[in-house]
Fold this sequence. Notes:
Elements: E1 8-9, H1 17-23, E2 30-33, E3 44-46, H2 51-68, E4 77-79, H3 89-92, E5 99-101, E6 114-127, E7 132-143, E8 150-151, E9 159-160, H4 161-172, H5 198-210, H6 213-216, E10 221-222, E11 230-238, E12 244-249
Parallel strand pairs: 1-12, 2-7, 3-4, 3-5, 5-7, 8-9
Antiparallel strand pairs: 6-7, 6-10, 6-11, 11-12
Helix pairs in contact: 2-4
Amino acid sequence: xxxxxxxxxxxxxxxSKELESLFYxxxxxxxxxxxxxxxxIKVKLSESFTSNEQALFEEMVLEWEASAGCNLFEPSERVxxxxxxxxxxxxxxxRENNGVYKPQQMIEEMDNTVLAASQLFLELExxxxxxxxxxxxxxxxxxxxxxxxxxxxxLEGEYDLKSLFLHEIGHFLGLFHSSDGIMKSGTGPxxxxxTISSLESDTVFDKYGRFPASDLAEKGISIPEGxxxxxxxxxxxxxxxxxxxxxxxxPAESN
Length: 255
């Protein structure tokens, strides 16, 4: 898959250049994956989604699982909508749940150009000359319902929920943005992208099916436990087709 590199890289103030270099995420040379002991992934949908929207989410999960050739998710459960105003709170205050949320209040990191955000917390597992392998330890999907309306059958000015579910689940599984297809960074009202391309299908199949990313862990230099740090990645689905992302190396005490 073609990956864009127009991204904002942010590291915590005070990190050494060595740490910045070690944990830097280059979408062309980084693999994000859920380890086998975390599969199938437990994910909860907030009660703000209707039962029909939950069923649609499950359908989109099945689309990605068909591409991967394996079971990636447990059936989704329900969780109370959380009244957080920061994306980071979904990790720090609700770490035990990998969730999909549709809050009605404004989220600090999501302005009127951001439709949704996928937030992943990673640990660098190992690296070699070709690739860095990051293990996903937590993930959330948050829709910007404060600024936008989403619908399975979008009316004028609304955004297609099916397309957005497919896109965000792709991020949840460790895919970066691409120049087109389901994983492109931007979209417009009523625009529909509801078919996983052969390139996107091959990417997720390679990650979890044909050549599981976990197999790569045995082929690189492992990071000692004492040196492991958590990296936060936020990938934004936007209305202006700009590839907007944020990577942040968290302080050691955040692990």
